[in-house]
C-alpha cells in the first residue's frame, strides 16, 4: 500500500491539525450558521489557518458581518477603491490570493471609520450659503440676531440627495460619496402657495436681493431614505411635500395651507411599512400642532399645561395669503405671546407610529401624546418630561431604522446643553397614573454648555449622537453604544449621567453662529450655520491623502484643546 496523505497537508496544501481538517468537510450551510455566532476577531484567526478557510471567510463571513453590523455602508461606493487595492496587491505580492474580497475591504474600512470618528481624523471643508449673504450688515455694535433680518438655514440628507434651505431658496445636490465633497449645484426658488403638480426648474442668475419673507423655508425633513421626497415647512405656516426627480427637476406633490401666519418651527415624518403613505406632523412657534394623514389634516392648539384643543386651520380667504407689508419677520413678532394669551412657545416635534412628542418652553418642556385612531385621529392624555425649572427643548430625535439603538428611546436636547434619554414604552403601560417620565440617561459635558439646537445620528453604525450647539458653530458627539442592548431601566437611573466618551468640536473658526441643523452619514458630519454649509469627511483620509486646515476640539473626559488630523 502506498503512503496515505497526511492530514497536515489536506485542504489544498494548507497545514492544519487533524481535528481541524475534519471541519473543512462540513457543509456550507452549517459553516454559515457557525459564522453567525463568531466575533470578527475569530474571522481573522480562521483566515490564517489554510487557503480554503481563507476563501470561505472572504466569500461568506465578512458579508455576514457587514449585513449585521454595517448595513448602511455602501459597497458600490467603495468598489473603485477595492479595485485599486487589488491591482496594487497583484503588483506587489507574489500570491494571487493576497488580494482580499470586497466584503473584507469594506469591513476593514468600517473598522477604520470607528477610529477616524473617535480620534478626529478628518478632512474639514465649508462653502458660503449664497442666499444667506443677502442679509444686511447691522449697525455698529449690534449683532445680526438683534435685528431679526437674518437667515436660518435648514438641512436634510438621504442616501441619494442632500437638501439645504436658506430663505426661500432650496439647494439640491447628490449626497457626497466617501471622497467627493458636497456641492450646492441646483437652486430652486420655492413658493408656499404653489399648487400640487407644479414643476420647478433651477433658478437662473444671482440670488434675488429681496423676496417675500413669509415664503422662507423654516424646516426640512426627508420622507424616505433616499430623500427623493421632502417635507418643507414655511414661515407662513404652510407645509409642502416635494418630489426630487433630479438635480434639474423638483415637483410640488402636496400643499397644506394654513389660515394663520404662525411660523413652522419643526416638521416630522413617519413612514409606515407596506408602502403606506407617510404621516406628517408640524408644529408652529405658537403651539399649533397639525398631523396630515394622506388627504386628512387634523389640528390642535396647545398651551403650556399640555392641553391640546382641537381647532380648524383652513384658509378662509385669499386675503389671508397675500403678501405682508412687513419687510421681514421680526424677532419681536416671532416671540410675542399668542393672541389672548392662549398657546405655548413650541420649538420641535417628533412623530412616531404610536405617539407624537412636542418640545416647548416651560417647566414641562416635552409633552408626549398617544395617538388614538379608534374614530378618526385623536390625542390621548399626555405624559411629560422636564427639569423642575423653566427650560426649552429645541430638538427631538429617535434612532434611525438601521441603527442598533432601540427605536423606542426618545432623545431630547435641552436649553442647558444636556441631552436626556427617555423610554417611551411606559406610554403603553395599562393603569399608569404617574404622568411624568424620568430620564434613563443624561448626556452632558462636565462644564457648562450652550443649548442644543439640533440632533442627528452618525458613525459607521449610527451609534454616535450628534448635538448642534447654540454658539461658536459647536458640535458635540456622544457615544451611545451603551444603549444598544437597553431593555430595562438602567440601575442608576433616573437621571443617570453616563461616562463622557465623546468630544466637542468647533466646525468653523471665528464665528458665534449656532448650528441650526446637523446631519450625518457613516462617513460625513454636515451642518449649517447662519452663513456657511460645512462638512467633516472621516473617510477621505482612509482612501486618499487630503489636505485641509485642522479644527479645534476637546474630549469630554479631558478638556485639553486639541486639533484634528488628516492622517490615521
From TrEMBL:
Pfam families registered for this protein in UniProt: F-box (PF00646)
Position of the signal peptide: none
SMART domains linked to this entry: FBOX
Entry-linked InterPro entries: F-box-like_dom_sf (IPR036047), F-box_dom (IPR001810), WD40/YVTN_repeat-like_dom_sf (IPR015943)
Superkingdom to which the source organism belongs: Eukaryota
The protein, known as: Uncharacterized protein
Organism name: Pseudozyma antarctica
Lineage of producing organism: Eukaryota, Fungi, Dikarya, Basidiomycota, Ustilaginomycotina
Amino acid at each position: 500500500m502506498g503512503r496515505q496523505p497526511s492530514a497536515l497537508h489536506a485542504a489544498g496544501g494548507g497545514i492544519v491539525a487533524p481535528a481541524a481538517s475534519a471541519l473543512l468537510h462540513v457543509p456550507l450551510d452549517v459553516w454559515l450558521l457557525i459564522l453567525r455566532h463568531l466575533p470578527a476577531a475569530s474571522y481573522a484567526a480562521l483566515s490564517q489557518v489554510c487557503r480554503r478557510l481563507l476563501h470561505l471567510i472572504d466569500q461568506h463571513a465578512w458579508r455576514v458581518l457587514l449585513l449585521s453590523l454595517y448595513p448602511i455602508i455602501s459597497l458600490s461606493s467603495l468598489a473603485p477603491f477595492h479595485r485599486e487595492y487589488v491591482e496594487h496587491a497583484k503588483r506587489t505580492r507574489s500570491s494571487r490570493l493576497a488580494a482580499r474580497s470586497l466584503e473584507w475591504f469594506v469591513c476593514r474600512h468600517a473598522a477604520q471609520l470607528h477610529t477616524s470618528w473617535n480620534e478626529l481624523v478628518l478632512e474639514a471643508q465649508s462653502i458660503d450659503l449664497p442666499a444667506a449673504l443677502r442679509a444686511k450688515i447691522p449697525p455698529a455694535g449690534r449683532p445680526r440676531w438683534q435685528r431679526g433680518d437674518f437667515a436660518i438655514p435648514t438641512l436634510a440628507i438621504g442616501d441619494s440627495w442632500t437638501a439645504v434651505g436658506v430663505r426661500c431658496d432650496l439647494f439640491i445636490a447628490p449626497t457626497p460619496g466617501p471622497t467627493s465633497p458636497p456641492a450646492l449645484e441646483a437652486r430652486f426658488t420655492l413658493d408656499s402657495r404653489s399648487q400640487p403638480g407644479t414643476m420647478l426648474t433651477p433658478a437662473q442668475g444671482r440670488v434675488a436681493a429681496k423676496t417675500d419673507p413669509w415664503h422662507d423655508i423654516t424646516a426640512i425633513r426627508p420622507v424616505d431614505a433616499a430623500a427623493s421626497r421632502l417635507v418643507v415647512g414655511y414661515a407662513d405656516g404652510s407645509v409642502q411635500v416635494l418630489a426630487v426627480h433630479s438635480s434639474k427637476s423638483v415637483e410640488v406633490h402636496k400643499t397644506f395651507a394654513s389660515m394663520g401666519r404662525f411660523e413652522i418651527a419643526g416638521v416630522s415624518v413617519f413612514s409606515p411599512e407596506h408602502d403606506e403613505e407617510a404621516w406628517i406632523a408640524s408644529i408652529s412657534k405658537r403651539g399649533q400642532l397639525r398631523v396630515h394623514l394622506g388627504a386628512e389634516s387634523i389640528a390642535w392648539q396647545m398651551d403650556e399645561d399640555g392641553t391640546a384643543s382641537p381647532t380648524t386651520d383652513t384658509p378662509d380667504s385669499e386675503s389671508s395669503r397675500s403678501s405682508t407689508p412687513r419687510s421681514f419677520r421680526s424677532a419681536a413678532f416671532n416671540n410675542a405671546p399668542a393672541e389672548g394669551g392662549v398657546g405655548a412657545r413650541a420649538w420641535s416635534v417628533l412623530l412616531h407610529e404610536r405617539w407624537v412628542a412636542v418640545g416647548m418652553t416651560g417647566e414641562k418642556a416635552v409633552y408626549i401624546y398617544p395617538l388614538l385612531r379608534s374614530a378618526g385621529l385623536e390625542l390621548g392624555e399626555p405624559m411629560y418630561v422636564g427639569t423642575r425649572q423653566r427650560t426649552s427643548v429645541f430638538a427631538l430625535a429617535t434612532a434611525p431604522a438601521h441603527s442598533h439603538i432601540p427605536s423606542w428611546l426618545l432623545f431630547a436636547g435641552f436649553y442647558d446643553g444636556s441631552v436626556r434619554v427617555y423610554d417611551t414604552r411606559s406610554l403603553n403601560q395599562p393603569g399608569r397614573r404617574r404622568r411624568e417620565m424620568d430620564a434613563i440617561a443624561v448626556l452632558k459635558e462636565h462644564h457648562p454648555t450652550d443649548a442644543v439646537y439640533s440632533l442627528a445620528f452618525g458613525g459607521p453604525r449610527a451609534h454616535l449622537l450628534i448635538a448642534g450647539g447654540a454658539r461658536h458653530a459647536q458640535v458635540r458627539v456622544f457615544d451611545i453604544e451603551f444603549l444598544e442592548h437597553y431593555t430595562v431601566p438602567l440601575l442608576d437611573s433616573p437621571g443617570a449621567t453616563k461616562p463622557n466618551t465623546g468630544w466637542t468640536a468647533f466646525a468653523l473658526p471665528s464665528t458665534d453662529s449656532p448650528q441650526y441643523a446637523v446631519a450625518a452619514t457613516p462617513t460625513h458630519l454636515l451642518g449649517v450655520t447662519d452663513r456657511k454649509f460645512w462638512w467633516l469627511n472621516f473617510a477621505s483620509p482612509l482612501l486618499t491623502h487630503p489636505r485641509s486646515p485642522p479644527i479645534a476640539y476637546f474630549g469630554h473626559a479631558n478638556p485639553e484643546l486639541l486639533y484634528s488630523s488628516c492622517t490615521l
